[in-house]
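Batch manifest, entry 17 of 40.
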Amino acid sequence: MTKVTKAEFSRIRGVTRAAVTIAIKKGIIEQEPDGKLILEKASLQWDANTDPTKKRNYTNKENRPDPNKAQEDWNVSRARRESALATLAELELAEKQESVLNAEETETTIIELCRTTRDRILGIPKRVAPMVAGLDDERKIARLIHDELETALKGLTVEGFKRKRAAKKVVA
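Output type: structure tokens
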């Protein structure tokens, strides 16, 4: 903890003594009761509470911040923000146009389709057994089982998925 006078602080920061006095009066930096400044504390307050892009009366050219650098940082930040907002707007538009699917809704729909299909497949033996019991023709039995499997698996097609999604939207 180094204590310095206003004059010493102004030399260290590369600003005029008047700028330091004004900063103290405005409450930008705090002065100790003995009239001195704690260098580390005052430096942190100066950095946090002053705008590096504003013109100052610098006495030391090495301490003078580059206003172009501050402007570049702001421009880069602004460009990133604008890019993020544009991406969000594109996603919202795509969702409204239904060219993008909501991951959560899609997962729920797929799980429901898989469960329904599983239940249909597991129900085939119970439905087909009485029909096949009296048949001797292998081709007829194979055709009957094939048709039942095809019916059970129909929900797993793209059309089945779209129907399921559309039905969920009507309910919601």
